[in-house]
Amino acid sequence: MTLLVVGASGFLGREVCRRALAGGRRVVGTYHANPLGTPGVDARRLDVTDRAAVRELVAAVRPDAVVGTPYRYDDWAVTADGAAHIAYAAAEAGARLVHLSSDALHAGRPAPYLDDDPPTPIYPYGAAKAAAETAVRAIDPSAVLVRTSLIVGEGSKQIQLCRDAIAGRATLFTDELRCPVDVTDLADAVLELVDGDHAGPLNVAGPEPVSRAGLGLLVARRFGLDPAGMKTITGAAAGVVRPTDVRLDSSRAAALLRTRLRGVTELLAA
Prior knowledge:
- By secondary structure, this protein is α/β, with parallel strands linked by helices.
- It is 39% helix and 17% strand.
- The strands form four sheets. It has a seven-stranded parallel beta sheet, sandwiched between helices.
- Strand 4, helix 3 (76-93) and strand 5 form a beta-alpha-beta unit.
């Protein structure tokens, strides 16, 4: 089986490549600026905003499946248009598509979000992720849209942000609840979905909600750091418009997948 991972130089993309290679798949991975450092991956440079280039690459690789992880926080063309270009090319090639989405497309509310809850974005990145989902679903109704949360693990920028806040170099929000997921758990779940036939949105996140500040305390305990100087603030006080309580109900994924999605306390146990 040939798997094409678009965005293979990213944190999740690299792990999907590693796990896929370990499972005996042929893996082609794309990058834009930073060359891949994953042995065994057939690396190809790609600009996902170039529709013709995306179609040309997919036609040349002829993958059985595509995992699409394109995003750039402040770039609509990469996050939204890029996802549409990938979906179009994958459908044209008859390839199974697993598109990586985000809890950022929700506004936040007291009740957890179910898989089929419609997007309610309140800031530009969330709007771009919502637009990406809309395009992918219109182009390929059989595609899977994996809605996930903060991705943690070795080398995670989320863990580094917490360490920076503990050292007084960054600030963590106390009122932003998310459901962190381990990068290896998420990669294994994605590869299961590659081999399955589930279609549409699916929440794939950890079962344990935690604030960013709470995550910081868990990181402090995990690495034996003193959290006394950890800088925290509320989103309102910081004057930012971001989702607050965004808990994903991943019970459907837990029942569907063999991969166990571990909670953050277990992941960061000392």
